[in-house]
Amino acid sequence: MYDLLKGLRVVEGSAFVAGPTCGLYLAQMGAEVIRFDSIGGGPDFRRWPLAENGSSLYWEGLNKGKKSIALNLSSPAGREIAQRLAAAPGDDGGLFVTNFPAEGFLSYEALKKLRDDLICVRVMGWADGSQGMDYTINSALGLPLMTGPADDARPVNHVLAAWDLLTGAYCAFTLVSALLARTRGQGGREIRAPLSDIGAATMANLGFTAETLLSGRQRARMGNDIFGAFGRDFTTKDGQTLMLLAITPKQWSKALEALGIVAEAAALEAELGVSFAADEGLRFTHRARLYPLFERAFAQRTAADLAPAFDAGGVTWGAYQPLEAALDDPRLYKDNPVFEAIAHPSGLTYAAPGAMATIPQDPRGDVRPAPKLGQHTDEVLAQVLGMSGGEIARLHDDGTVA
Amino acid sequence: MYDLLKGLRVVEGSAFVAGPTCGLYLAQMGAEVIRFDSIGGGPDFRRWPLAENGSSLYWEGLNKGKKSIALNLSSPAGREIAQRLAAAPGDDGGLFVTNFPAEGFLSYEALKKLRDDLICVRVMGWADGSQGMDYTINSALGLPLMTGPADDARPVNHVLAAWDLLTGAYCAFTLVSALLARTRGQGGREIRAPLSDIGAATMANLGFTAETLLSGRQRARMGNDIFGAFGRDFTTKDGQTLMLLAITPKQWSKALEALGIVAEAAALEAELGVSFAADEGLRFTHRARLYPLFERAFAQRTAADLAPAFDAGGVTWGAYQPLEAALDDPRLYKDNPVFEAIAHPSGLTYAAPGAMATIPQDPRGDVRPAPKLGQHTDEVLAQVLGMSGGEIARLHDDGTVA
Predict the structure, then answer these.
(1) Mean pLDDT score across all residues of chain B
(2) pLDDT tens readout for residues A48-60
(3) Which of A109, A250, B25, B257 maximizes the CB count within 10 A of its CB?
């Protein structure tokens, strides 16, 4: 945990990935993040993967360092508490992250009555409010039909919920931006972040839509070939699969040198009358001619031979490895100072990350575990809403909080 | 363009996706973003897809609304200008986004000499500074081996550079957070955002690493099956492929109702002695028994029949469609107010997005095109560095700027 956002009080009423990662990123930069949930847990509280005792490893990964309050969100009293929390007082309060519907008891209009300068960041599926999740938005954008080997027409979904993740980080960005603006007198606002718009805009930002407008159809499916440059997976003498990339001229020349195919590539350039070094697009256009050079060079050497040669030569490459191997990889997990072994609500102790960025001059601070559900119910009611012990006890007795 | 970040002056010295999307998001929220490049363009200036005249649709998508200055970055004089820009004066200046190496002429140490409270957000590949790009980091994290049909062992790369995109949005978040902290007296800092750490941390945040620690191996490859709940692609009577998802109890009951298989699902529950409504994980465990019910129901109806029934029933679903169909989809592109048809540097006019989020109470403002390379060279030298016309003319003459 870093302290860039020390003093901020953010309330999160959300589930799944986008809203919770937004809250997570804010917490890991020093904000106090209070997540409210239904008593017994929200729709993501039992989401797989699970520990042997049934605890969700997903939930405890996504809610690290937050406080938890459990409310009966079906009751008027519980809903009123959620509203009051969203509109919490303080110069650095009134910051609400949610994926609750834009209409209803957590609408901006309802909350604005409690705090006029409220900042509300709302994750949505489709922009019109209809049901949409990462995988259904993704299928509408064409990507699953562009993914996977060219010899197989079946759509391939991504395993990483990329739209959820992008939305979560973008929401954290917009929330802090809105707070900066409010600090400078702009007032509060609602910021709606629909996965559908984030997906549609991103496909345009990357040039996919302009390309399709020009050609009349989406990019062809091409396995692991890097579009418009040189890159693909190749197999070594000992059957390992390595990813090799060459976009810049330097990446290209270093790859040729490390593989010892400078002369072969030059001969092909002479034959075709092109410069592969000067134009990465030509490497893509002529990739069917280039691939055999690389395939032969990889097939002559083992991964153990190639790895040090690639590293020494500054080649941009990577081995395909399963996650269990990544866990032993000192660059990713084993010796990574971003991670710290801590005890989690599941009862398990394992390494978990703090902030995803590193500030060399600042201490990292401890990685903090997720709360138990409702762990901070009393503390939050007292400190944020100023309730007395008697009031809190009555809310427990009548089932409004837990 | 919204005005949350009005008055900020951000300098960007970066290429490809992560750094440029960071700058793009900042610009679309109102910041002045000045991108410097080598004369003739950086390593991404000719990145595919291209327009017929050779202009990069990728570059013009990723640099919308920025100013451009072209410098001879091989010369000491050009490098000095880049340093002075990064450390630009003003309370809301001294904000620098880059993917230049951590050591070298744009190191934090070098820039800090010019401005003590500089904020520098640095996109990196591997955290140790070695070469890494989205696709090589991704191969090291295991995802390509988890992606794609279970009957095919070949690794499947993602087509969407998800780590780059997540890194870009996260960098925008950290930059504004650091500015908020600086405004409150914390001083400046360098924030390093390596793709490798962002990938490793995200796999942990989502529970993938804990799952693998417990089981000893990574999640099995399972095609389009949604892990730990119910979801997959199904084929309709007329051969259309639709994605259907049911994670929450409500999503589950609505899917059964819309497909008319409530009784069949109940019979299976009775046979197995389980409640699919109460535990989404059981739907995953018993998916081989559930799939035939859904396959039959889909096979009996056309997509044209199912779509309105699904929408009326509030089912979470989506059609797999290619991007050319998405461009005609009113929810994504055709009638989407996030997009506006504008003229681009390629000479083409097509719809491009502004900010990915929507602030209902604020005017959206115009979508602004990318600059031509070096379009703002003179303006930036005069306004940001206070150079005279004579000085600027000499820099042009000696080839330091263009």
Answers:
(1) 97
(2) 999 999 999 999 9
(3) B25
